[in-house]
User: Which sequence fits this backbone?
């Protein structure tokens, strides 16, 4: 394992340093900006691109357009586009993706790697779908949160890459949540479409760093991501020479980075991206987290005036069709407003605060697991209406059980939060050791 990791590390560092002396400016260079590094690596190859609306270089040119323009210079050919959740243009809602079709602008085939097609999961392209591809380039803007699905699509693509003898390249991008690490590690029983790696809720890695960790730790498992006993199995390892991370230049995890374009429809501002790990947990509750309003992931509301803190707002009724509660209602709650969103660090505090508010208002706190199938029936009466989904989001079923137990005795917010956080401190400390092994940037 040590030899495997060192080989990957040396490969990445060498790629990142090849052009160190070519430009002495301090301007951030994204992976996609560094064509003098990746261009020669693509020579003679058919190239597939995993991209969406966030795939722009530092001058605002889309990765598709950039790579097509570079074809003749470096003697490669872009042959296929791969679309993840929200679609190739980023205009689909959560839980939706594109259907396979031809791109109007380029004439290239778009293959969806999200959702299903006639019952077949699309997540891992077939041998036929990769037949005209030698290497797939991943260039999507992640946000450093385990349940944001782009890096899950990356993982599954890497499994097809390994199975069919292709190569994989990551154009690295900043993590807008920096090197912040927080929350429980995902437990194997909670593996799902929103989490497949044993990492914390907020993992502190760029996509390139996470790809390196996935390969170095042997987390590719063929098609059986629910069996962690397969971790490290040689038959599923991606050869180190098949992974290329095009690192950024002049980047550190500490420097603020404001995304030039939304990574997904409901993450429209820097504040929403910072709040996302905390407010994303409310997907498992009856409390609206701003979806269907003008400020998604920037406010929380419930249809009871006793929950009013500083805002009330109306929710678009159309969200009901996507399975979200409180569609068409006026809700009362809290709008978040930070002068500098970079100073905000997501935690369970908002979730615990609302739990205590429901408890104070004599509302029911959580439905049973076997009631989740009809969760919208409980949107007026209970706080947690999707307990299994909460476990998948935060990573462990013990969080809800602990919250139910501890809040009977501890009702002061800060004390309750600290008591809950202690439950995963050791696991988080162990993860930080692993994190430092694969960290590329300061």
Assistant:
């Amino acid at each position: 394992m040590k030899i495997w990791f060192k080989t990957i590390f040396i490969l990445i560092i060498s790629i990142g340093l090849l052009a160190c002396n070519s430009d002495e400016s301090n301007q951030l260079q994204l992976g996609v900006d560094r064509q003098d590094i990746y261009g020669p690596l693509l020579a003679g190859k058919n190239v597939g691109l995993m991209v969406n609306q966030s795939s722009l270089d530092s001058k605002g040119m889309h990765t598709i357009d950039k790579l097509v323009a570079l074809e003749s210079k470096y003697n490669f050919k872009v042959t296929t586009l791969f679309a993840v959740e929200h679609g190739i243009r980023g205009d689909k809602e959560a839980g939706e993706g594109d259907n396979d079709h031809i791109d109007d602008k380029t004439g290239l085939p778009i293959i969806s790697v999200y959702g299903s097609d006639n019952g077949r999961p699309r997540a891992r392209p077939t041998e036929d779908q990769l037949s005209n591809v030698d290497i797939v380039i991943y260039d999507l803007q992640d946000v450093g949160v385990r349940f944001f699905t782009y890096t899950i699509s990356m993982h599954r693509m890497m499994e097809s890459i390994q199975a069919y003898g292709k190569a994989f390249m990551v154009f690295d991008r900043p993590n807008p949540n920096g090197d912040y690490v927080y929350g429980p590690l995902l437990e194997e029983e909670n593996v799902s479409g929103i989490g497949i790696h044993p990492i914390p809720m907020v993992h502190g890695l760029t996509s390139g760093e996470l790809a390196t960790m996935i390969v170095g730790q042997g987390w590719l498992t063929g098609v059986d991501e629910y069996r962690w006993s397969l971790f490290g199995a040689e038959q599923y390892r991606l050869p180190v020479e098949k992974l290329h991370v095009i690192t950024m230049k002049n980047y550190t995890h500490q420097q603020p980075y404001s995304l030039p374009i939304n990574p997904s429809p409901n993450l429209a501002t820097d504040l929403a991206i910072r709040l996302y790990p905390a407010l994303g947990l409310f997907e498992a509750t009856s409390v609206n987290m701003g979806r269907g309003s003008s400020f998604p992931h920037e406010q929380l509301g419930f249809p009871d005036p006793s929950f009013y803190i500083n805002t009330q707002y109306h929710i678009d009724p159309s969200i009901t069709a996507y399975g979200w509660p409180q569609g068409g209602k006026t809700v009362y709650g809290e709008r978040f407003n930070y002068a500098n969103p970079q100073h905000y660090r997501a935690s369970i505090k908002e979730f615990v605060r609302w739990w205590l508010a429901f408890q104070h208002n004599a509302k029911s706190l959580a439905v049973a697991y076997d009631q989740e199938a009809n969760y919208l029936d409980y949107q007026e009466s209970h706080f947690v209406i999707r307990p299994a989904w909460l476990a998948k989001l935060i990573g462990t079923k013990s969080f809800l059980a602990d919250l139910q137990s501890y809040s009977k005795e501890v009702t002061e917010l800060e004390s309750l939060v600290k008591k809950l956080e202690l439950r995963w401190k050791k696991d988080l400390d162990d993860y930080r050791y692993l994190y430092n092994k694969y960290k590329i940037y300061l």
